[in-house]
Every structure is written in structure tokens, then in C-alpha cells.
């Protein structure tokens, strides 16, 4: 089995300067894999803080959006430069009983003038075949 058949990007938030603002990637259906991992890459920054919010919703449009319990990370370290943060997610950690099946990561930055951030949402162990089969349009096909 090739690595991209086991894990593959499901969504990305392209590198951007989020100084004093927020950003997120699109809502993603989490029914197609057994587990997920957000990878947040923070470049050069002078921010006073950053909050990483794993959120859930009932529709791809974000209906009923709320935080996923236990998945909110507050980074108060002034020396955030060049760090990577990871947040894991199992579909069972979401409120599926009430129809929540879409997830996204919202990055909120306070203060600063330069805060370079990018995120990738990886799916692992596809339930219905290769993870690359349902790749989003902004992710190029794998190189075999």
C-alpha cells in the first residue's frame, strides 16, 4: 500500500499573514476516514497569542458551528516563531448523535503585524478506499 492510500490532505489553509485576525479552512466531511490530524505551521511572528479552534458543524456551510470539546489549543508563548502544532481528531469525538459531521480548524491571532500561518488537515485510514480518491481540488494528485 502506498502512503497516500493511507493518509492524504483533506483540506488546506494556504500560507497567510493573520496578524490580529483569523482564518480557517473549509468545512470537511469527516465520515470518510478513521482519523484526522491538523498540522499548523507558524512562521515568523510577533503576535501576543494564538488560539487554534477545532470546530464542528452539521452542514458544509457551517450550520450550528461549535468547538469540539478538548480540542481548543491556546498558545500564549510570545516566541511562536517557526513552530508546528498538531491536533488529532477521531470522528467519535464529534457530536455525531446530533448530526455534526463536518470539521474545520479556525486560527485566531491576537496582536502583532506579521504572523505567517498555514494548516493542513490530513485524513488517515480511509473507510472506502484510497484517501487520494476523494482529494479536494486545491490538493494536487499524488506522485507515484
3D structure, described in words:
The protein is mainly β and 144 residues long. It has one domain: Jelly Rolls. The chain is 3% helix and 53% strand. The protein is built from one helix and nine strands; from the N terminus they run H-E-E-E-E-E-E-E-E-E. It has one helix at 3-6; strands at 7-17, 22-24, 28-29, 33-45, 49-57, 66-75, 83-89, 102-110, 115-126. Strands 2, 3, 5, 6 and 8 form a five-stranded antiparallel β-sheet that branches. Strands 1-9-4-7 form a four-stranded antiparallel β-sheet. Strand 5 (49-57) and strand 6 form a beta hairpin. The longest helix has 4 residues, at 3-6. It is globular. It starts with a helix and ends in an 18-residue tail after the last strand. The mean pLDDT is 84.
